[in-house]
Amino acid sequence: MATDPLKSLQRTFVQLRELIPATPPRVSFEFFPPKTPEMEAALWESIIRLAPLRPSFVSVTYGAGGSTRDRTHHTVKRILAETQLKPAAHLTCVGHSKAEIEAIARDYWEAGVRHIVALRGDATADGKPIPHPSEGYRYADELVAGLKQVADFEISVAAYPETHPEAKSPKADLDHLKRKIDAGASRAISQFFFNGEVFLKFLERARHAGITAPIVPGILPVTNFAQVVRFSKLCGTEVPAWVARAFEGLDNDPRTRQLVAAMIAAEQCRQLRAAGIEDFHFYTLNRADLTFAICHLLGVKAEAAVSS
Asked: Which CATH class is domain 5-298?
């Protein structure tokens, strides 16, 4: 019988002490473009808070059908202009012709952006992945190949430890991931998950399938459990019963939720770190404190703290 992960949380911080003195892992952060001036202020507070952790890169998401296109461009270019961070711009197939993709990519390259997160993107309102298949890229592997023809971008793509909801089978999903890597992607970043064993088994299957590029686990610190449940249904991520139990009764207790969320994410990272994982990608939801705390526990210290 598998050990209840809730019990292992009691050992988390004791076990983390073994990790902190070791060479810290590499981290990266994901943000989403703000819709309002208030949200933009919150985003920049998060960026300023996390920047001293010296992430490998920070990515900025792209809405379905390119709905956040201008805001994504603005955020990426501002990060490039006003910080020392390396921004990665998300770019999707949905809603764009090949000519539009090329124009967007060239604009990024000329602005100094060298990293693209290439995604197929969500289906549009009519349920079609691409409105004009004859004029656009159908899948992310085609997008990767197209971007490589524009310029020598560093390209990240998505991976699904629990299989993409639209994939015919886990094998078909892995085959598609391999096509994206073979087309020129530098790494894959995984969808978030809660069971570390699921990710490690997926990584093993990927290696057996001939995928040698880095596959970075995506970590989502839970700030709103109900929201995470909705996200999980859309992307095919299982929310284990032990996670639900951990947040039970905390709907009106945000301070305790934060502590529980930190423990769960720290335990995930501890398990993966113990298995040799060296990179972590955090879905910040434009909130910095939980991610900052987890990184600190993993030995990723703020620059000022390191130099003091």
From this structure: alpha beta
Question: Which residue, 142, 80, 139, 145, is CA-closest to 107?
Answer: 80
Q: Could you tell me the two tokens for 152?
A: 């020598």
Longest Cα–Cα distance of the chain, Å, equals 58
What is the tens place of the pLDDT at every residue in 114-141?
Answer: 999 999 887 655 555 555 556 888 899 9
Going by their DSSP bridges, the two strands 87-92 and 215-219 should be labelled as unpaired
**188: which strand partners?**
157, 215
User: Token pair for residue 297?
Assistant: 């526990």
Count other C-beta atoms under 10 Å from residue 102's C-beta. Answer: 16
In a 13 Å sphere around the CA of 210, the CA atoms on its Cβ side amount to 8
Phi, psi values for residue 38, rounded to 5°: -65, -40
Q: Which two tokens stand for residue 46?
A: 């998060």
Q: What are phi and psi of 28, to 5 degrees?
A: -145, 160
Would you state the structure tokens that stand for residue 54, as one six-digit string? 């010296």
- Please report the pLDDT score of residue 308 as a whole number: 34
d(CA 131, CA 136): 8
**Domain map (residue ranges) of the chain:** 5-298
* Catalytically active residues, by annotation: 30
| AA letter at 287 | R
**266: closest CA among 75, 68, 86, 5?**
5
Q: What is the DSSP string of 8-44?
A: HHTTHHHHHHHHTTSPPPEEEEEE---SSHHHHHHHH
Q: What is the pLDDT confidence band of residue 95, given thresholds at 50, 70 and 90? A: confident
Mean pLDDT for the stretch of residues 231-251: 90
Q: What is the pTM of this model?
A: 0.89
**Secondary structure of residue 100 in the 3-state scheme:** helix
Report the chain's mean pLDDT, rounded to a whole number: 87
